[in-house]
Design brief:
Blueprint (H helix, E strand, L loop, with lengths): L4 H14 L5 E2 L11 H9 L13 H12 L10 E4 L2 H12 L2 E6 L3 H9 L4 E5 L10 H13 L4 E7 L11 H13 L3 E5 L16 H4 L4 E6 L12 E4 L4 H17 L5 H10 L4 H27 L12 E2 L7 H8 L4 H10 L3 E2 L1 E2 L12 E4 L8 H9 L7 H18 L1
The structure holds pyridoxal-5'-phosphate.
């Protein structure tokens, strides 16, 4: 099995850089912001914590994560929380603990289907409606559940991403409610990946977790990689339902965790325990991050729209998912592009723009769609990233302005 497509594009960028080419890095989904100094200091202070600690995570972290969810209308006790070295391994362990076939939105984050494949579990890709990324179409989900049952391999779970990677959209409340109803009817566990929840661009936009509507069957995963830009610190948490199902999953999850990662990194847990209490300094840091993500994702969306792409406007995180099919004929004649893989290849090899092809997200290979990550435009180093974070007009900063200009020029060549 190939290395994850997102990591592969990062490596392609590094290779091109070594060849002396300046690649516009729109491929890798990293938050692209510096570590807040308060987090840095606390991590240094916790460096002496070299014991393994409990498999589920340190009590202080589990309490703090429970508090985080309580403040989001989700009553939670520490015993419902399990921490792990990132939400990615937690998702893998959850898929294994739940077992059976899983329904995934199409398109969806590259690793869900890859993890199911590693586990020899079947992934059913269910289309999403435009602007409703991350949540399978409820009627199609119900039909897939029926079909799977008839074939003797019933679906066991459905995964939703709120807000979504790759599309950057947040599905409407009625979609989420409809999927909860289907899950209940077909007895599916709902895995709700809420890693971008705190990065919904409009803070006034209402957010509905499936755990509010179907608390008995919803498992939430989240972490500090995106909201606090701490991807490399590797810490995620999962909230299990307060039900018999939740207890069963917890037992299996801890069994897997104890045999695979033992416990999350102890010093990181100590810092995360503080972060999940949501101190004012971090709330302000998060607000600034959210503003920057919204501003730059919006500006990149405008560049794509000006180039004739169609897209659902980004609403959370730092992604967008433009469709360039309006230029299909011209791109086929000019560049020999007939599918998303070819489109992404021409963009990186000929036009110095790294993106990911829609096919990496399970999308129709012939659709001319790309996943564009906008957060590495903030700059190549902490100084420029920090400047972007605090500047009133980040789009006027020379390196961000140049990045947007480079993108517009590349798209003009691609489609002209
Ligand atoms: C939708 C989604 N879920 C989960 C993850 C994994 O995050 P973590 O760093 O917590 O493993 C990512 C990271 O790119 C993601 O985009």
């Amino acid at each position: 099995m190939a290395v994850s497509a997102t990591l592969a594009v990062n490596e392609a960028v590094e290779r091109a850089r070594r060849d002396g080419r300046t690649i516009l890095p729109l491929g890798f989904g990293e938050a692209g912001l510096p570590v807040h100094p308060a987090l840095r200091e606390r991590l240094a202070g916790a460096a002496g914590a070299n014991g393994y600690g409990p498999v589920a995570g340190a009590a202080q972290l589990l309490e703090a994560a429970a508090g985080y969810w309580i403040r989001r209308r989700l009553p939670t006790t520490a015993s419902q929380v399990v921490a792990g070295p990132g939400s990615k391994p937690l998702l893998y362990a959850l898929l294994q603990a739940i077992g059976g076939d899983v329904a995934l939105p199409r398109p969806s984050w590259v690793s869900y289907a890859a993890q199911a494949e590693l586990l020899a579990q079947r992934a059913h890709l269910i289309d999403t409606a435009p602007g409703q990324g991350g949540v399978p179409d409820p009627a199609a989900l119900a039909a897939a559940a029926h079909r799977a049952c008839e074939r003797g391999h019933p679906l066991r779970s459905v995964l939703v991403t709120l807000p979504d990677n790759p599309t950057g959209t947040l599905a409407d409340r009625d979609r989420v409610a409809a999927v909860c109803a289907v899950a209940r009817e077909h007895d599916l566990v709902i895995i709700s990946d809420e890693i971008y929840r705190d990065l919904v661009h409009d803070p006034a936009r209402s957010y509905l977790s499936p755990a509010e509507l179907a608390p008995e069957r919803t498992v939430i995963t989240t972490g500090i990689s995106k909201s606090l830009a701490l991807g490399g610190w590797r810490l995620g948490v999962t909230r299990l339902p307060a039900s018999e199902l939740g207890e069963r999953l917890r037992e299996r999850l801890l069994h897997i965790a104890s045999e695979v990662w033992s416990s999350p990194a102890n010093p990181v847990q100590q810092v995360a325990a503080w972060a999940y209490t949501e101190p004012q300094v971090l709330v302000e840091h998060l607000e600034a991050s959210r503003r920057l993500h919204a501003t730059v994702a919006g500006a990149v969306a405008e560049v794509f729209v000006a180039a004739g792409a169609t897209l659902a406007w980004p609403q959370g995180g730092f992604y967008l998912y433009p469709d360039l099919s309006a230029h299909r004929d011209r791109m086929a004649q000019g560049w020999g592009i007939t599918d998303s893989q070819g489109l992404a290849r021409v963009l990186i090899d000929e036009l110095d723009v790294a993106t990911l092809p829609g096919v990496a997200f399970g999308d129709d290979p012939d659709a001319l769609r790309l996943r564009v990550a906008t957060s590495l435009l903030y700059g190549p180093d902490d100084l420029r990233r920090q400047t972007a974070l605090v500047d009133d007009d980040p789009l006027a900063l020379p390196w961000i302005r140049d990045g947007l200009g480079q993108l517009a020029a590349a798209l003009a060549r691609l489609t002209g």
